Amino acid sequence: MGCVHGKCCSQYPNSSEFDAQEFSHGGGNNHRYVLTERSIEIAHVPSHNFHLEYSVLTQRGYYPDSPDKENQDSFCIRTQIQGNPNLHFFGVFDGHGQFGTQCSNFVRDRLVEILSNDPTLSEDPVKAYNSAFQTTNAELHDSEIDDTMSGTTAITVLVHGDTLFIANVGDSRAVIAVKTGNRVIAEDLSRDQTPFRKDEYERVKFCGARVLTVDQVEGITDPNIQTWGDEETGGSDPPRLWVQDGLYPGTAFSRSVGDSTAEKIGVIADPEVSMVQLTPNHMFFVIASDGVFEFLSSQTVVNMVVRHTDPRDACAAITGESYRLWLEHENRTDDITIIIVHIKDLHNQLGGGATNGTYGVTMNPIPLLSGKGSADTSVSYRSLRSNFSEPQPCLYTTPVERSPACVVPSPTHLKTVSPFGTEDSLSDPIFLQLTMNFYFLSVIKMDRLLKVASH
Question: Where in the numbering of this chain does the PPM-type phosphatase domain appear (predicted)?
């Protein structure tokens, strides 16, 4: 959600150096966006004799009022941290504000460097994580970047042997897929840090924040009503944080890195860190910015990954559906970034509560979402304003074979409301251009496959 006012490291190059395709947008404007794709990469974990297969995709948002706005999302994937073949880092950073891109890139680079240089990382990842976030936040404040009204969220996963350490600051999300019988359950690995959460609401109120929706600020609804339901029902006008005597900063999250003005009213950079011990029932995990989860539930995202043998296809399908739903409900889209990591050939002894729906233990400072999305409990959502989300666990079937074509919105989703007021998407220039863009990307992927085959 970000502020009301308003890439990669290791073996990956910066976003400007990606093998990306830039498309012209339809609708009679000069908007251009970049959809970036990477090949499948592999990271081995020799201590437990399994490996990770992962891919990532990032897409710049569509902002009709700011057609040249940069992609403020960034990501970092670094394998073999400190030369340790069993230590791998994955992170997504969602910048916001005027200098959100600079904040996102700064945190992306510095956080992993600080972790890499911390001698206690292997022995105490939780302590190292907390220290790294605090140091990164202080360095951002002291840098040449103006972070008074800008900053970034951060969702990161550290693979430490057969254990995941998840550190979250903000409202991006990590989700893991757990196979239970013939079903695949989405287990949230992080909790969105927003004023919808009672604990976060009370914390920022204690620090002096006014918590109001935009409608309450404008006097449309009663500002004395301090209950907003949950993100599913109140996502279209979420509660935001304001200083007592002004209409700023208006953040819809309660934690971030940067945002020195919001820091004065309780927006902190302290991560919530949790731990999960992997078992053979864990199939893959997903790390994504809130551009994905604005209209898709965690379970829907997991269901979409299950349908594809190749994480590249899953990344493209989820990004395409997220983009389509944004345009259906808004006149813009958010930046979208997603990392999918498959867990392959893990054969350790079952443990960690995998049979009863609890997949983690409390570390610091909150419990993992024990039981969330398990076979006998409900799945949690964000602002699911779409009728196309699938709250039921996915029935496990053999995934489709890899296809060179990216997934485009299905025929059942042809009705949409475009920024031009057209209800029939068949005559909607944005929808048609988006479909053509995915077609062009599929051609590019086919060409790539043919080149590989020729060698």
Answer: 53-343
Q: What is the biggest distance separating any 2 CA atoms in the chain, rounded to whole angstroms?
A: 68
Cα angle 423-214-71, degrees, rounded to a multiple of 5:
65
User: Encoding tokens for residue 70?
Assistant: 């940069």
For domain 41-192+254-344, which architecture applies?
A: 4-Layer Sandwich (3.60)
Q: State the span(s) of the chain assigned CATH 3.60.40.10.
A: 41-192+254-344
Q: Model confidence over 216-230: pLDDT tens digits? A: 888 898 888 888 777
Residues facing residue 75 across a β-bridge: 92
Highest mean pLDDT (candidates 223-232, 343-352, 373-382, 418-427): 223-232
**Dist. CA 301–CA 292, nearest whole Å:** 8
**What is the spatial distance between Cα 59 and Cα 336, in angstroms, rounded to a whole number?**
5
The structure's pTM equals: 0.75
The residue behind tokens 């600079």 is 102
Instruction: Please compute the mean of the pLDDT values over residues 52-80 and round it to a whole number.
Output: 94
Q: Tokens in use for 410?
A: 């299905």
d(CA 339, CA 146): 29
Higher pLDDT pick, 452 / 103: 103
Give per-residue pLDDT as tens, 110-158: 999 999 999 999 999 999 999 999 999 999 999 999 999 999 999 999 9
431 exposure class (CB count in 10 Å sphere: 0-12, 13-18, 19+): buried
Please count the CA atoms within 13 angstroms of the CA of 237 that sit on its side-chain side.
11
Confidence of residue 373 (pLDDT cuts 50, 70, 90): very low
Residue with tokens 């959100």: 100
SS3 (DSSP) at 235? coil
Question: Model confidence at 414, in pLDDT bands (50, 70, 90)?
Answer: very low
DSSP string of 367-426? ---TTTT-TTSPPP-S----TT---SPEEP-PPBPP-SSPP---GGG-B---TTS--BGG
